[in-house]
Structures are given as structure tokens and as C-alpha cells.
Amino acid sequence: MTLPGRAAWAAVVSRPELYRRLNESARVVVVSAPPGSGKTVLLRSWISHAALAGRAAWVPVDRDEHDPQRFWLSVLGALRQTAAGAGLVRALTAAPDLDGWAMVERLLTDLAPLGQPLWLVIDDLHELRSDQARRQLELLLLRAPKELRFVLATRHDVRLGLHRLRLEGELTEIRSADLRFTVSEARQLLSGAGVRLSDRLVTLLVHRTEGWAAGLRLAALSLAGHPDPEGFAAEFSGSERTVAEYLLAEVLDRQPEEVRRLLLRTSILERVNGELADLLNGGGGERVLRDLEEANAFVVSLDAHRSWFRYHHLFAGLLQLELRRTEAGEVHKLHQLAAGWLAGHGYPVEAIRHAQAAQDWRLATELLADRWPSLHLDGQAATVHALLAGFPATIRAADAERAALAVIDELEQGSMEAAKGYLALAEREAGSVPASRRGHAQVLLAAARLFLAGKAGDQRARAEDGRRLLAAAQTPAAAKPEMGEELRALALLEIGDAETWTGRLELAQPHLEQAIALARRIGRPYLEFMGLTYRAEIELNRWLPRAEELSRQAIGLADRHGWTDDLFAGFASMTLGSALTWRGRLDEAESWVQRAERTFRAEANPAAAMGGYYVRGQLELARGRFAEALIAFRAAERLAGPHPLARPVRTWLVYVLAGLGETGQAEDILAGLSDRDRGRGEIRVAEAALRLARKDPHAAIALLAPVLSESARVGWRSWLAEAFLLEAIAREALDDPGAGERALERALSLAEPDGALMWFLLHPAPGLLERQAAQRATHGALIAEILDLLAGNRPVPHAGPRPLLEPLSKSELRVLRYLPTHLSAPEIAGELSVSTSTVKTHMRNLYVKLGAHRRAEAVQQARALGLLAPSASPR
Q: Which domain holds residue 854?
């Protein structure tokens, strides 16, 4: 090789003036300049010079990054590798539904206590193609604590609302002119390469390259060992591009053939290691790459072991241009080879991109179809969307596997009609799939139908399509083993949850248990988390201690992986809060219900929020706070629609209205029910409670008789305990103590096994219980526990911030996250790409829902509810 050795090139040119500007910079620094300007080298050398290695998080943005979740996971991961970030930033594992906005809010919460400067350096920011991710980054810039400093390196200005930071004096800008090498710096660079030129020629070289770092570095490579460096330096000239192409040709022409060939053939790669270089070029790849990196010859190592490398973007672009000029017929073949190696070594996204670059649509389709389940479970829906966009539209629609993937993608994008259209295409093209792929296509079609049924809320179709997917995924020829197991686990979960909602709990449980066991075996903790949450919901209607245990397992898993803001973490918290409410542990239940409420509002999911209000209503009712319970159940009623909980909500409203003395309204609810519903066990019990509130024990006894004889069945045995309790209260009112004691004894026997004590709080009868304890030896401890609960359960004003009457929509949440900033409504509108009137409407809605009159009050209430991160220290 003719490249200079490490001794000559290891030292990077020191740039003290730029180091000074970076050290004395404002909170946000933007380094914006074209490729080859020396941005990355400057920042790396500054971090080393300023001894910031333990206080600087380096985040290189992947090429064409469309996925907000993947970007923010890389930010969190980099921050956790710093000394300060390791103790503050919580770990987070990829999951299907992580929301970038919530991830930023979480990061703001984690970094609020930051007490020392911490730098976040984002390199190649121009590669961040997601509008959502850029807006989320802007929000972090606006609201981060003053100790968090930002350095953003980009080829061109990226829209981030930086003009406001400029006006506030919080922005330092370093641009192309600032990065140009001076004559003195150019002399250092040349001297480091062993090149000696006269002062006149160094000045001429700087003039002709305009101080352009890449041009000078290429010139140094060309001049090192040149027989006539003075003559060469005096001759070349031209634009940046022509200078670069000319100098690169000089550098390449002087390399041994093995180096030249390796540089050209591996230039198609985003990153390269020795094994991949050998595949594309032959042996010795790792040695050449390390030599190039040591020579600082536009090659950068990407890991501590120096096993992966990438070329400087400008250098790679010029090499690719030369490759197309000299070996145009090899380019597609190289991409295909790279695709095969990357797919086989666990890099599916890069593999698919190379297959697409080769225009090998069949290979790209097979790779995407086979890796889709893993990409989905890793939360890379945006990446899948971008990969699908890499197929020409006519190509995408002409293949059953691609069309099936497009169904799921369109559902992710929120387009049900487009999804249905692609499903019809997939079904029509299924017969033309090659025989070797027919099983795979059937699996994808089954998955597409299942996702469509789930989005439509059709639980019976969801269960049936889940069974079809399960059968298809278990066919030996259908899918690769890892793909089949992931889809089997997903299908089992979908079947189990759908069967739960259709009331077939005995069928749901084994499916969910199989899913949990399979998820553990294949190392998919998110699927295990889902399964535990679903299982806990089943046990809430069967065995409260088990519901509590499973909920805590799910929550523990969520805490370990950072999924505390996930929708399923909200479901698990809601189930735990409900189980604790039923067992009379009301103060403990309160914290879990609040946690669920925060999660559901953050998700802005109406069905989830409805469930949260439902459990909140039960908790308030158990505490005797009827007015608060009425607010919660009315909110649940507005959101219920056709949800399976709609009928139970009306049942609970009868209890609440009876407790408030609004018996006429309670009668109206009952009158609005069908004869069939009114004959159900739960409704009969609720109506009996209303009759007792109206001092009509005879009517109550008549209503309860079919329930007690079990001719009118109740969905959960605990409702039967309530029926016997009301029977005891009614018999006491009719002066029939013997029958009352027997009924109370039966109620206690039904409640004792799982500790379902809420009915005794809702229908307090301390006198009956005390007499029962005095006259019978059984249930003494249980009666004492209930009496203690009744003594300590006096209604008290609601502690802490009152829950919202309605969940915030996703649009309202986005506006809310900008309220702690100093942006005006028109400026917020500009950042969110909506009209000012839309933002003002959302702000008015926020004030109403948060019970606030001014912006500051809304922010304060949102922070109290956990919707916004706590305030950072003032700047």
C-alpha cells in the first residue's frame, strides 16, 4: 500500500479556535456544512481535546432514518453510556407501540434532575427523514434542562425552529466558512502526511481547495510519496466536485490493485467488516480496512473492537461513481451478494435495501416477508413502511406477499379502506405465488386478515382469523422456524383475548398460557407481557389473588424493559387497581388506578380510557364518594359505544344513582333496558339494591329469588355474594333475623376465598355483621376485617388532581407538550403543520378538560396528572 502509515497520520489537526467556540457555545450548537467539510472529525477531536468522552453521547443517524422509535432508542442508548446518563436515563426495550412523543416526555422526566453538563451530539441529522421525529427533537431542544447541551451536525439546515433559539441567544452556528482550513492548519495536515511544500504552494493549495477539508485531505494522500509534489500542487484546480474526483482518481491510481478493488466494490455498503469485504472482493479485507482507518483515509471504525467500518459519505459517493464507470455490470451482483450475507447474519433492513438496489424484487419481497414479524415486534413499523415504499407501486400490487404486507402497513397508517383494497389484491394474486413460497403467502394473508379483524373490533372474526394464522404458521412449509414461532405466539394471544371478550374464558386461558410459555422460550418479553396482562384480566372475573399476582408480574416486566407508558402497562395497572378495590385495599388501589389513567390519557385510546373510568368509578363507589363515582361512570358511558362493558356501566350507574338518592334516574336506566337484559342476574341484583333504597324489601326479595336459586345466573360468583348480602339486609328490614343470618353466612362464605369485600363496603351493614360474629364462630376474622374497613372508609374529599372528564385526543396531547415552551399559538401551529385556529381550539379543549383558565394552570395540572415531565431547573 502507498497510504501513509499510522505514525504519520494518527494525529488529527488541532483547531483551537473552533474548540474554543464549542467550549464557549450556547446550549445548542449547529454545525452545518456540505459533505467533506470536516464536521465529524472536528467534533470527535473536540470531544477528545476537551476530555468529554464520559459526558458526551454520540448518536449517528442511520441513512434514510424514517423510524422515530428507532431514532429515540439510539438517543436513549447513547445517553445511558455517559456517566450522568447511566444513573438517570431508564432502559427501554423496543416494542410495537412505543410512541416517540411519549419517549421524549419520558426522557425529559429522567433528565429533569440533571445537575452537570451533558452533551448530546447528533451526527448526520439530515438523514432523519421522519417529520414526527424532527418535531419531537425540536420539543426536546425547547424543553430540555439547561445542563443538557446539544451539538447537531448536518449537511444542510434542518427545520427545527432554530430561529427562536437564535433570538434567545441559545444557538451557536458553525458553518462552511468556519470549517475551512487556514494556511497554518493545512501546513499541519500536510506535515502529518510527510509532505513538505513551500509556503507559497501551501497557500495556493488552500486557495484552490478553498480550505475544503476533504480536498486538502485527498491532496495530502495524493502528495504523500509523489515524485514531484511541488509540480502536482501547482497544477490542479477546479470546483469542489472536480477537485475531489481528480484527487480521488490520483489516490486510487496509486493504490495496489487489492486496495483499489476493495474500495470500489465495498463502496455500495452502508458499513463493512472484513468478512463482508472478503465476500465482495476476496481475502485480506479486514487488514486493508484497519490500515485505511489507521491512515485516517476517509474510513471510520464504528465499534470499540474496530470490526465494523464506514467510509466518509463523500468518499463513498465518489467511489460509487467510479465503480459505475469502471464496473457497471457488477453493481447489481454486488448488491445481491451483500443482501444475502446481511440477511444471513441478522441485518434484515440493510439486506432488503441492497436487494431493492439490485432491483431483485423477488429477493427483497422474500426477505421482507420472512423478517416482517421480527420487525413488527421490534416496533419498526415506520421502517417497514419505508421499505415497502422502496418497491414501485405497480410491483407492490402484483404480488400476494407484498400486498399482504401492505394491508398491515395501511392499518398502521390508519387507512382501513386502503387495507381492504390490498387484501383483495393479495387474495386475487395468491394463486400466482411460486410453489416454494405459497405457504409463506398463506401465513401473511392470515396475518393480514387477523390485523384487519382486530382493527375493526370484530372479536369473533378476530378469534377465527387467529386460528387460521395459528394453523398456517404451524405448517412446516409455511415459514422459517423463528418467523413461525413469533407468529404462533401472536396468534395465540389474539385468539385468547378475543375469546375473553366473547365470554369463553375456559377457551381463552389455555391459549394465553401457551402464548406466555412460547414467548418466554423464544425470548420475546413483549409478547409475554401482553399474555400476562390478558391472563390477569381473565382472573379478575374468577380469582382476585391470581389477578393481582399476574398483574404484578406484567407490571414488573414492563418496569424492567421501560414499557411503563405502554398501553398494556395501563391495562395491567387497571386490573391490579380493580383487584385491590374488590379486596378492600383502597389506598393501594388508588395509586395503580392513577397510573392506569395517566397511561390511557397518554395513549388517547377511547376504549382504554373507558376501562379506566370504569375502574375509577368502582373505586370511588367503594369509598362512598357517589358524586365522584357518577362522574367516572358517566364518562365511561359516553365512551362505551358497543363495548362489552357498556351494559355493566349501566348497572353500576343504578348503584350510584341509588346512593345519591336519584332513584328516579335509576328507574329510567332500568326502563331503557330490554326485557332480556332486565332478567339477567346482575341487573336483578342492581334493581334489588334500588328497591332497598326505596324501602321496598319485599320487591327486593322477589327480584333476588331467581338469582339465589341460580335460575338467573350471574357472570361472576362475587355477584352471587352480593345477592345474598342484599337478601340478608332485606330480611333484617322484614324482621326475619334467622333468614337474614343464613343469607349473610352464605354471602361471607362466597366472599372469603378470594377476599372480594367490596360489596360489604357498597352495602354497609355493620350491625348485622357484629351480631353474626357474636352468634356464630365461623368467619370471625373476615367479619373483623370488614368492620375495620367500614370504620376507616368514611368518605373524604378526593386527594390530588381530579381525573379528566374526557381523555385527551392525540392532537390535544401534541399541543399540550408545547404548552410549557414560550411558543405562541401561531408558532405551535407552524411546528405541527396545522392552522392557528386548530391549535387555539385544542388549547380551549385542554383548558376545559384540565379544569384550567390559563396556560400556566393547564401546564401545572398536566404535570400533577403525570401528562408532562416535571419542570426542569430554570434557565
A: 810-864
